[in-house]
Write a structure and sequence with these properties.
Elements (H helix, E strand, L loop, with lengths): L2 E7 L7 H13 L4 E4 L4 H14 L4 E3 L4 H10 L3 E6 L3 E2 H9 L3 E7 L6 H5 L2 E4 L7 H12 L14 E3 L8 E3 L7
Parallel strand pairs: 1-2, 1-6, 2-3, 4-6, 4-7, 5-7
Antiparallel strand pairs: 8-9
Helix pairs in contact: 1-2, 1-6
């Protein structure tokens, strides 16, 4: 089974709460096992852990990590690292290589990323060569490299489940006595 983890760099707690939360939510939805936050923001951790508790899954969040150490350990364990940016090789040219990775760390920055990221990454990937959102970069990349249809994943142990419907909103509260 493919393992994907997201490393979020450059998060500025006073400015980036919403975008970093959305990067984490997107990674979770599309199959990442967790997010490493290279900044200290317990509020982001609390928000994402609350989503996991209510909506299910096993997604984890680690706060205030040392990005160099995380990358070195990931690579020492046989993992590969791709850095999403506007600069680098075009995503369509490396999609098959990424799909074949069993352990993939996706790195996405907020503010200017440290120059050494470009050296530490196995791939520096341009997700479009124009300014864009890191949320979009994560979504496009993870969708393209997914095993199966990522939007049809089921999340175990959910307290809440949305029932697909053409109109209206239907949410089931799972009490633990009903099958999910």
């Amino acid at each position: 089974m493919k393992r994907i983890v997201l490393l979020r760099l450059g998060h500025r707690p006073e400015r980036d709460k919403r975008i970093t939360t959305h990067v984490g939510l997107t990674a979770r939805l599309l199959g990442a096992e967790g997010m490493l936050l290279a900044s200290d923001d317990p509020g982001i951790v609390q928000t994402l852990e609350d989503v996991v508790r209510r909506w299910g899954g096993n997604f984890y969040i680690r706060n205030n990590v040392n990005f160099k150490q995380e990358i070195r350990e990931w690579k020492a364990d046989g993992g590969k690292v791709c850095h999403l940016s506007m600069y680098g090789v075009n995503l369509p040219g490396v999609t098959e290589e990424l799909k074949n990775c069993d352990r993939l760390m996706i790195v996405v920055g907020a503010e200017k990323v440290p120059p050494e990221i470009y050296q530490l990454a196995d791939w520096n990937i341009a997700v479009g060569s124009q300014p864009h959102s890191e949320v979009a970069a994560v979504a496009i990349t993870m969708d393209r490299i997914a095993d199966g249809e990522p939007l049809e994943r089921e999340f175990p142990n959910a307290e809440l489940t949305i029932v697909p419907a053409e109109r209206g909103k239907q949410v089931i509260e799972n009490t633990g006595t009903e099958p999910k």
